[in-house]
Amino acid sequence: xxxxxxxxxxxxxxxxxxxxxxxxxxxxxxxxxxxxxxxxxxxxxxxxxxxxxxxxxxxxxxxxxxxxxxxxxxxxxxxxxxxxxxxxxxxxxxxxxxxxxxxxxxxxxxxxxxxxxxxxxxxxxxxxxxxxxxxxxxxxxxxxxxxxxxxxxxxxxxxxxxxxxxxxxxxxxxxxxxxxxxxxxxxxxxxxxxxxxxxxxxxxxxxxxxxxxxxxxxxxxxxxxxxxxxxxxxxxxxxxxxxxxxxxxxxxxxxxxxxxxxxxxxxxxxxxxxxxxxxxxxxxxxxxxxxxxxxxxxxxxxxxxxxxxxxxxxxxxxxxxxxxxxxxxxxxxxxxxxxxxxxxxxxxxxxxxxxxxxxxxxxxxxxxxxxxxxxxxxxxxxxxxxxxxxxxxxxxxxxxxxxxxxxxxxxxxxxxxxxxxxxxxxxxxxxxxxxxxxxxxxxxxxxxxxxxxxxxxxxxxxxxxxxxxxxxxxxxxxxxxxxxxxxxxxxxxxxxxxxxxxxxxxxxxxxxxxxxxxxxxxxxxxxxxxxxxxxxxxxxxxxxxxxxxxxxxxxxxxxxxxxxxxxxxxxxxxxxxxxxxxxxxxxxxxxxxxxxxxxxxxxxxxxxxxxxxxxxxxxxx
Length: 621
Prior knowledge:
By secondary structure, this protein is α/β, with parallel strands linked by helices.
């Protein structure tokens, strides 16, 4: 029978902490965009493109030649009207044939160069996206538990999917349009100025209002697309949270409430999309208005000059064609700006994520643990002047000192929120103390390389998380190089062998997502076997028997009595029956150790543990 409620998870303690100590304003985790150094987005983009620097230069050269081939057309038309056609009327067809041949060659060259550019840009884009997804995944794994308890998995999924997809659209489609438009502006402006200073000057001056419109659109659209990206992330977070918690959702009939909240988030997403479309429509309308006014003015002015023999007809025709080519991509440029703003917002969020540093960083100069003494697999643990508070405020563990002897099994009991799980997580170095230090055989935990620390200290939590894969693979996570015989020995020692061999494929049975193919108690036994196979010096069991039934718990306790002999063990006790295997019991209240002694000493006393023990015994009567 359960006599004390399970300790809060650190996430729950964090949420309740402000009531005690006062919340700190401006927590960046309240927003979807994490803080990053100035220029982090541009630095990230440069680092992504750096490996492909040679291909980027080649792609730029190809696009340069492609635009030269494309923009040769109107110039050839002007030559044909003003030179080749009059020559043909004099029976001189050479210039007309030359113009036609040049036009066909330029069209063919433009197509081939376009094909080459698309292939190059596609390869560059895929390599960039592959690198970016890999960086997000690797960096997210390296961040501390503190980060993951505050930044939801839905947001991480949004960074690696929706935001990366926005960048993909920009690289695959938008950049080609941008480079094409920029080169077209340069080529056409230079050509028009060469053909006629007047028409060229009008074309150049028309860029002034267009540039002002573009700057206005970029400024207004940046906030809109940032809002849209946040709205998308909120939808993904809600969807992920609901599907992960589908059992309590259905058990407590939360479907309608969740649907209402999801509809609200969807409406926010729709509103952000609508604002983005309206901003783009406004830009397209105004830019088209400027372009059409300029084009009409050039045609009227040019026609007047042609009538007065002040301008050749071919030059006017080429000028009109060039201006149409100059202004027609305005819609494409709007689509590029659309993609650009979306990608810029996404890149800002990814850069903010990648700028986060682990709360428990690797030491600059790692120290090694001393060799274990013969026959003593455990190590001494010392909490020296330790104090701990979460970043959002609220002290969980006031300053305290504690020594756990090597090879000692220590049970920690207390009511909800007493700080039991926090103490265990400090020992596992999921967090670093706010003050003081935790020592393992005299070596501070923050001076140990993380791989060595994880080999020396292993934690089995109440959750007993299993990965998709076979039972054997899940047990072997504790020691990847273990043989099948060693895996089976660990399972036998913990009492899991019988149920594993009864599965359809024994140790090769796929446990599926989160171990859903086996029961909660069986998942807990597999997690125990995983930890025992790792052979740690310090084993932390954070309410790890809470999912077991009475026979399963008794089997585990029998195995633990043998397996934990000589090994330092910290057992966060959910059931007082677990305490019976301990050499020492710590009773915690309000983050302090209020009782410390052997089970027999505390049971025979008059303190809190004695009261709990009597209540537990009475419940079994």
